[in-house]
Amino acid sequence: MRSLHFDRFGTPEVLTVHHAADPVATDDQAVIAVKAASINPSDVKNVGGAFPSTVLPRVPGRDFAGVVVDGPTDWIGAEVWGTGGDIGFSRDGSHAELLAVPVDALVRKPAGLSFDEAATAGVHFVTAWLGAIQTAELAKDETIAIFGVSGGVGGAVAQIAAARGARVIGVGRTPPRTDSPAAKYVDAFVALEGTDDVAARIRAATGGRGADVVYDAVGGVTTAAALASVAPRGRMVAISAVGSRTVTFDLIDFYRNETRLLGVDSTKLGVVAAGALLSELTPYFESGAFRPLPVARTYGLDDAPLAYQAVAAGTSGRIVLHP
Predict the structure, then answer these.
(1) Is 35 in contact with 67 (CB distance < 8 Å)?
(2) What is the number of structural domains in the chain?
(3) I need a surface site. Which of 11, 38, 140, 299 has the fewest CB within 10 A?
(4) Distance CA 68, CA 65 (A)
(5) CB 207 within 8 A of CB 200
(6) Are residues 300 and 259 in the same domain?
(7) Based on the domain organization, do 275 and 162 belong to the same domain?
(8) Averaged over 301-313, what is the pLDDT?
(9) Which of 116, 86, 112, 111 is nearest to 99 (CA)?
(10) Nearest 5°: phi and psi at 315?
């Protein structure tokens, strides 16, 4: 098979296309023909050496959609989707013609999603659900402020929050595009025109109370404003750090507000655990309640460095590889 490959960390130019032996199914492992695999910012960071869990040499790629070609008889020919914090890091990933995963990781693709669409949903929705629902325990009628609402994770959080019956305040440099699935779920939008008055505007939009949950999908440059936006005894979720990984905040204000600061790292979920979560999410995709971001461009493996560069440059919409 042909696969993307890197044996040292660096810019996307370190990626090469290799010919490797096809993976073989075992009693507990299936082989998937990858029809589509998205490129996430974390894939770019992975190639750059940002994750200590990565073992070289490696085939990168977390998200995928494809068809089972070898494994248990009842799975042969099944259209599946998946993601994981181990594939592409400690085991070979999805930026290849074939991908081997544990049988327990197999999840049938929602029929309403194309392979391209299914390949773009994994990291975004797993991270969003893990943070908003499993960790922060967002409840019906609560208010959530989402920093980075126009991004992939932020947009997924908005859809999940709406399905939960929560009120959504979006925060970002610009509102979600009208073709973004999250746009119709944002009840109010606060622009990041510098962070000094962002918290005041969020509090004004919540009757002075602040948001029950603040999901900071940006981090670093937004952390102070996000913390200042939390309602008394509210929760803040942090998943990223942009600009600086070190922040300072008023500890007295923090404990007097009884804020709970929660870190979430989706790379801790392996492909099996992430598959179980995708199974929970499947009915929402089947019903049309959840939709991934639009696909902006598709690339073949030979043009993968260009695809990675497009993601690093912040291209609006999703970038998908067709191995």
Answers:
(1) yes
(2) 2
(3) 140
(4) 10
(5) no
(6) no
(7) no
(8) 96
(9) 86
(10) -55, 130
How far, in Å, are 140, 194, 294 from residue 277 at the CA level? 20, 36, 22
Which residues 6+ apart lie within 8 Å of 308 measured at CB? 12, 15, 39, 43, 44, 47
**Residues near 278 by beta carbon (within 8 Å), at least 6 away in sequence:** 81, 82, 83, 107, 122, 125, 126
Q: What is the pLDDT of residue 196?
A: 60
Helix (H) or strand (E) segment spanning residue 208: none
How many Å apart are CA 157 and CA 172, to the nearest integer? 14
> Residue 72 is which amino acid?
P
What are the start-end ranges of the E strands in 28-97?
Answer: 29-38, 64-70, 79-82
What's the average model confidence in pLDDT over 36-53?
96
CA gap 237, 219 in Å, rounded: 10
Q: What is the DSSP letter of 96?
A: B
Full domain range(s) for residue 259: 136-263
User: 239-277 pLDDT, tens per residue?
Assistant: 999 988 899 999 999 999 999 999 999 999 999 999 999
Domain end position, chosen among 263, 281, 298: 263
Measured at the alpha carbon of residue 99, what is the angle toward residues 93 and 100, in degrees to the nearest 5?
Answer: 105
Beta carbons within 10 angstroms of residue 16's beta carbon: 13
Measured from the Cβ of residue 50, the count of other Cβ atoms closer than 10 Å reads: 12
Give the residue carrying structure tokens 């070289």: 56
Place of tokens 């932020």: 154
The CATH number for 169's domain is 3.40.50.720
CA dihedral 216, 284, 180, 84 (to 10 degrees): 60
How high does pLDDT run on average in the chain?
Answer: 96
pLDDT tens figures, 171-215? 999 999 888 899 999 999 999 876 568 999 999 999 999 999 999
Q: Which two tokens stand for residue 35?
A: 């029809």
User: What's the CA gap between 142 and 117, in Å, rounded?
Assistant: 30
